Amino acid sequence: MLNKLSCKIFLIILVFIIHSSTAIPAELSKNIIIIARHGSLEDTPENTFAAFEKAINIGVGGLEIDVRKTKDDKLILMHDDTIDRTTDGKGYVNKLFYDEIKQYDAGAWKGEEFVGEKAPLLSDVLQFAKEKNIKIILNVKENGIEQKILSFIREYDMINQIYFGGRLDAIRNTEIGIQGAQLIFFQPGELTNDIIEFVHEKHNHVGTSLFGTDNRDKMEERMIKGVDVILTDYPSVAIDLLHYKTTNEPKNKKIKNELQMEMNGNIEQVNVLIDTMIHGPPDNSRMAALILSALPQELSTHPLIELLTYKKTRKRFNPIKKIISIFKKEEKEILIPAIIVKRNAAWSLGLIKDKRAVIPLIKQLETDDSELKREITLALKRIADKQTVPILNKILLSEEDPYVRYDAARALGEIKDSHSIYTLITALKNDNNWMVKGGCAGTLGKNW
């Protein structure tokens, strides 16, 4: 009996010792800020308001976001230099207008519940962070936009909620009036008591990052050391370790910027826009294609289909009254290369989603131009007609350009036809391009 009692006492003491040596002190857990990398949880699309709202709701204290500049100098959130991976569109961020990027879905790749998410503007995210009183780590992805970012930070009175680092650190050191704690990141092996104490003496914050792992032991170890900030891909695990409780409720309305176009449309408008697509300049040509996609299908589909077979000519359309100031023709005649006109037409038809365009689009897949093939493939993805499955299967298995094969895999994921499953599995097994393999895996992982 005595031996059993002794064993119980020993086990109780052992558990107490282990818990005491690893438990996070209450005063530390209150001060540690968990920051969601790319502003997302494990199961939400990065750099979107859907991710931000869920992260805030579980109790994160901050978001790390990626900032890039569009062709028309808008600052948006996007990690990669292209929109290919995280939207249903394609192209380099700095080569696209923001109004164009807003046409693409930035959430569907993570699940049907996120359909309709868009790549947000930095200004809207700063407003959101101000309202929620959270910290922001700005990951500036390119040079030359620092001063514009700083002007937004000041406009939204966010100086004390921004951790300045990287490209923004130089601004912090030169601009008068920027105060507050500086966040200094350390690798795990560098986190000593002396280092942490030294940083705190300078009234700065100690940060550490945990990417690609939800290992609780590693997180807890760093929390116990006394770090101020943990940047992680798995904020829900970190929050759980800190025993956070949150009363934040998700807003019924998300902060979004939707493209608003109130054009009733008439033949005269369509003719002007078609004329602009052909005679440019190039930026206006793309914008004309975008506006055409917002007009009624009966007005825009047929002339856009005709442009799929456009060949450059010196004959201009008859002069038409100019109704949109940005499309004034130059004194000198400008003719956009035929291949660009075709690309813009295919892109616009994809945005319209009129099934009458499917066959004309498929006929143009014989082109040698990879960019036109990509525009057509993505247009077929948006239209999502099952009659395109055979040609998309063929593209996935035989197309030379891996980007076109990748787009075909994404398109098949949108259509969700069982006749493509074998093709996707074959490509997943045999394709030597990891981007294509990833596209196939993502498509096969959807709910069919």
TrEMBL record:
<dbReference type="Pfam" id="PF13646">
    <property type="entry name" value="HEAT_2"/>
</dbReference>
<dbReference type="InterPro" id="IPR016024">
    <property type="entry name" value="ARM-type_fold"/>
</dbReference>
<protein>
    <submittedName>
        <fullName>Glycerophosphodiester phosphodiesterase</fullName>
    </submittedName>
</protein>
<dbReference type="InterPro" id="IPR030395">
    <property type="entry name" value="GP_PDE_dom"/>
</dbReference>
<dbReference type="GO" id="GO:0008081">
    <property type="term" value="F:phosphoric diester hydrolase activity"/>
</dbReference>
<dbReference type="GO" id="GO:0006629">
    <property type="term" value="P:lipid metabolic process"/>
</dbReference>
<feature type="domain" description="GP-PDE">
    <location>
        <begin position="32"/>
        <end position="161"/>
    </location>
</feature>
<dbReference type="InterPro" id="IPR017946">
    <property type="entry name" value="PLC-like_Pdiesterase_TIM-brl"/>
</dbReference>
<dbReference type="Pfam" id="PF03009">
    <property type="entry name" value="GDPD"/>
</dbReference>
<dbReference type="InterPro" id="IPR011989">
    <property type="entry name" value="ARM-like"/>
</dbReference>
<dbReference type="InterPro" id="IPR004155">
    <property type="entry name" value="PBS_lyase_HEAT"/>
</dbReference>
